[in-house]
Structure formats: structure tokens, C-alpha cells
Amino acid sequence: MKQNDFRAPEARLVRKIVLIVCAVLLAAFVIAGASSFLYIRSALKPVDPNDRTPVHVSIPIGSSAAAIAEQLEQKRLIKSAAVFRLYVRWKNESGFQAGEYELTRAMPMARIIELLKTGKSLKIGLKLTVPEGSQLVQIADLIAAKTGYKQEQIMKLLNDRAYIERLMKMHPDLLTDDIFRKGIRYPLEGYLFPATYVFADEKPPLSEIIEAMVAKTAAVLDTYKAAMKEKNMSPHQLLTMSSLIEEEATEKADRQKIASVFYNRLHRGMPLQTDPTVLYALGEHKERVLYKDLQVNSPYNTYIHKGLPPGPIANAGVMSIEAALEPAATDYLYFLATPGGEVIFTKTLAEHNREKAKHIGKQ
């Protein structure tokens, strides 16, 4: 047999191996290119299209594009500092202006760059601040006062079943069937996060305002996913408990101790007996809850119904949410807010009544 007869199969094998290696390298190149394209395209988009909360950015004189990129990434205004630098170089962007800026995570990278180049802060058509402890009706009043929409129009959308179901599809982990439980007064009560919101238009669509608030709630609760899972709490349960803490807390109150009282009572099968639920059931604000008020026939009345009320009674802030997830370890079963704002915690009813006679009796 001739030597060439051995080399022919060997040559074919080599060619086959070379073709396979080339094909693999080409595939890897295509996949890497496609992945890079998708990554860069994603990085150019807003961090959160629904988060219009203003984020303050200070750009010192002489800041480089790299330094600006790092600051924007740290504040979660852009997804990638590296992509920002590449985009600026590719577009030959320059002339970033020093100054103070109010930007939002709803802005695409190109819009942020545009503002930083012109030296103009975010154009604010509407600035809306929702205080902690606000109830749905109060938020509707606030929106009406700031925008000119009628309160009835706002409440109608906030209670529109079809609209709420659209929101549920947008935020399935946050808005569940719990918001339609029997006895719920307003499905979105407690789901419009207390924060400051800015909009470019003086009178943006109502849906845009509401969706920004719901999206903020979803974003905040997303940071507590692990804690909620560990405590076996649904978003609805967490927001409900947090709202009770928020409504009972004063500036001097220890929210974690208030939370401990609620949990201690729940574990013992005692009614929560918290006055804000009675006021919510009555639908009015009063300086003092009278004995006759405690008899109001409502699923929100925690004097006659054990356990949590059907849903939140207000919008809770981060401090109350964290207290609901991490209550203090105490034996307290009662607490009392004094006229001076101090909160006194006690273990027995006798102690509670003595403190009540001492402080409330002075009014």
C-alpha cells in the first residue's frame, strides 16, 4: 500500500477537525456578539421605567465621564458605568456641566446624558409628596389638589376592577387576589407608597401617577423578599401589619416594640385592639376613641375581630415595614401613647390601666 493511501484519510480528518473548530469558534463569536448586543441595548434603557422618584446627583467641576458614570451607577440611575463610557465615546459626547441635578430611574441613558450636557435639571411639571401614614382617600385628595383632577374621578379609577386587574398583571408578585378579599374597603389601600414623585407634565395621566406609586411599592418590597420568605409573610400581610404600626407610631415611638406587642397578642390569640382600625372602620378622624366607637360593626374593627384586619389601613413607610419584619423581642402586651408623644409599654392589663389613668386622665 502506498504512503499516500494513509495520508488521504488523515487529511480528511484534519480538515474535518478544522471545520468543526471553525464552526465552534464562529458560533461562540456569534453568541458573544448577540449577548453583547442584548446587554448593551438593555443598559441603554431605563433602570426602572416606573420609578419617577427624584434622585439627587451632584456633578463637581472637572468631573470626567468615568467619574460621572460611576456615580450614576452607584445611585442606580444607569445599569452599567462601562456601557455609559462606551456610549459617550462612540457618540463623541462631551461638555458635561457641573451642577446639581434631579434625575429619575425612569430615564433612558440618552436622556440623562442630554440633561448633563445642557446643565439643566429634570423639568418638573408636577412634584407630588405622599406622607407616610396617608390613606387612599387622602392621597386622592392630594392628587386632586395638585393636578386639578376631581377627587371622584381619581377614586373611580383607584377602585376600577378592570384597571386594578391590569395593575395585577404588571406586578403579579405584589398585587394578588388578597386585595379583593371580602370586607376590603379599597383594593389599593396601602399599595401607594409614601414618597416624593416627579413628573415632566403638570397634569400627567392619572394612570401614570398611580402606576408610579404602585411600582415604588413593588420596588421597596422586592428588597425584603428574603425576610418575607423567612417570616412566611405575603406582601398583603406585611403591608397590613406595617400600616397598623405606622398609624400607632409617634416620632418618639419604638416601632419594633409596637410590632412586638401586635405579634405577642396574635400568638396568644388576643384581639389586637388598636384604635386606628376603629377610626378606619368609622371613616373619620377623632382625637379620642370612645367606648361606643369600639362596637362599630366592621371587619376592620380589631376590638371585636381577632387577627389582622382584611387589609392595610394606610400607606406604611420603610421604618414600619422593617419593624413588621424584625419586631423587638419583648413580653409586652399593651402600649399607650401619652399626650406628649411618648409610648409606654406594659405587660399586664392592670399596669396598662394604671398608666392610662396617670397620663390620659390629665387631658
UniProtKB/TrEMBL annotation:
The chain crosses the membrane at residues 17-40. It is a single-pass membrane protein. GO terms for cellular component: plasma membrane. It catalyses: a peptidoglycan chain = a peptidoglycan chain with N-acetyl-1,6-anhydromuramyl-[peptide] at the reducing end + a peptidoglycan chain with N-acetylglucosamine at the non-reducing end. GO terms for molecular function: lytic endotransglycosylase activity. Keywords: Cell membrane, Cell wall biogenesis/degradation, Lyase, Membrane, Transmembrane, Transmembrane helix. Pfam families: YceG. Its EC number is 4.2.2.29. The record marks 248 as: Important for catalytic activity. It is an enzyme of class 4 (lyase). It is found in: Cell membrane. Gene3D superfamilies: Classic Zinc Finger, Endolytic murein transglycosylase. CDD domains: MltG_like (cd08010). The keyword Transmembrane applies. Its main location: membrane. One of its GO terms (biological process) is peptidoglycan biosynthetic process. PANTHER family: ENDOLYTIC MUREIN TRANSGLYCOSYLASE. Functions as a peptidoglycan terminase that cleaves nascent peptidoglycan strands endolytically to terminate their elongation. Belongs to the transglycosylase MltG family. This is Endolytic murein transglycosylase.
